[in-house]
Design goal:
Elements lengths: L2 H5 L2 H10 L5 H19 L9 H13 L5 H20 L26 H10 L5 H10 L3 H5 L6 E2 L4 E4 L2 E5 L3 E5 L8 E4 L2 H13 L20 H16 L8 H13 L4 H8 L4 H8 L7 H18 L9
Antiparallel strand pairs: 1-2, 2-5, 3-4
Helix pairs in contact: 2-3, 6-7, 6-10, 7-9, 7-11, 12-13
Length: 322
């Protein structure tokens, strides 16, 4: 193997990789931080091909023991490094990915406790009038906060009772408020609007008319799209306090509320995943598995019914000779 194959600087290759990634500004910022704070200090003087699986495992362990990162954050940082090494294998810079068999810290699963219907109704009454429709629409469709903020009149079809998710609004310290594509390819979706959402949208557009197809459905008090930080400080948190909703509850709770209603109604994992715009059904199960009802009794009943039906359908055999 040529010396240059193993001699390529890990830092140089990682920077080249980072420069060509089509990340959103917020993601690009996080990736740069991961590399700068946790990766380069450990490996900037190492050649790309000289980093072995044992080195990776020791580094992963140090993320929690030395840097004090939470298990979930350690996994996120690892994913960045893993992506770099996968690209290096693809570019034939190294023969194998040293991250392939790394053991990651386990993340304790948090059980989501969704808001009740009455809590959502109370929240909608306590929040400023211009955001009442946003609360009800979020609870009735499961859209992410950024997707709700990014809705324009052209995305809402009240005649056919649907809303199309085609963009979202994000906010970062560096780039401010900006419009970008939805989180993932699966996040592009059309969600059916139940009657409560249609009525809420009609009332909202009556009180806060949109001038044309490109007009924002929900706007800041001074006009223009909703700014997340201003919305949280000036409207959401005060309304939650008045409604008696636990401190720290964010707009994403409306999405969990919607998912819980679909699950309670008996919708399949596949349907819930599609409505939420998750990457796959496994992600949906990982988040909401505890909300699906226990199937023990249904399992027993299914088997008993099958055997009972067979017994009832069986006809006594007639002995023709007799």
């Amino acid at each position: 193997m040529a010396e240059g194959f193993f001699g390529r600087s890990s830092l140089l290759y990682a920077e080249e990789w980072r420069a060509i990634q089509p990340h959103r500004p917020s993601t690009a910022k996080a990736v740069a931080q991961h590399l700068r704070c946790y990766v380069y200090p450990a490996w900037e003087k190492r050649a790309l091909g000289a980093i072995k699986p044992g080195d990776v495992q020791s580094w992963v362990t140090s993320l929690t023991t030395t840097h004090g990162l939470a298990a979930s954050t350690s996994r996120t940082v690892f994913n960045t490094v893993n992506a770099v090494f996968r690209a290096a294998v693809r570019d034939r810079m190294i023969p194998h990915n040293p991250c392939a068999e790394a053991k990651l810290p386990s993340v304790p699963r948090k059980k989501i406790v969704p808001l009740a219907v009455e809590q959502v109704r109370t929240l909608a009454e306590e929040i400023p009038a211009r955001y009442k429709g946003l609360v009800l629409l979020g609870a009735a469709t499961g859209l992410r906060p950024g997707e709700l903020f990014g809705l324009q009149l052209r995305h809402v079809d009240l005649l056919h009772a649907t809303v199309s998710v085609e963009q979202q609004i994000q906010q970062t310290a560096k780039h401010g408020v900006y419009v970008c594509p939805p989180k993932t390819a699966r996040s592009h979706r059309t969600v059916p609007l139940p009657r409560v959402a249609v009525d809420a949208m009609k009332a909202h557009l009556r009180d806060f008319p949109a001038d044309g197809p490109e007009s924002w459905i929900f706007t800041a008090p001074q006009g223009g799209p909703v700014v997340y930080t201003h919305f949280m400080d000036g409207s959401w948190r005060p309304a939650c306090a008045k409604a008696g909703i636990a401190k720290g509850t964010g707009p994403h709770s409306l999405r969990h509320h919607y998912a819980s209603l679909l699950i309670k109604h008996g919708e399949s994992v596949k349907t819930v995943s599609e409505r939420l715009g998750h990457t796959n059904a496994a992600m949906t199960l990982n988040i909401y598995t505890h909300l699906w009802p226990d199937s023990e009794e249904r399992t027993r009943a299914a088997v008993d019914k099958a055997y009972a039906d067979q017994s009832a359908d069986a006809e006594p055999q007639v002995d023709e000779a007799a």
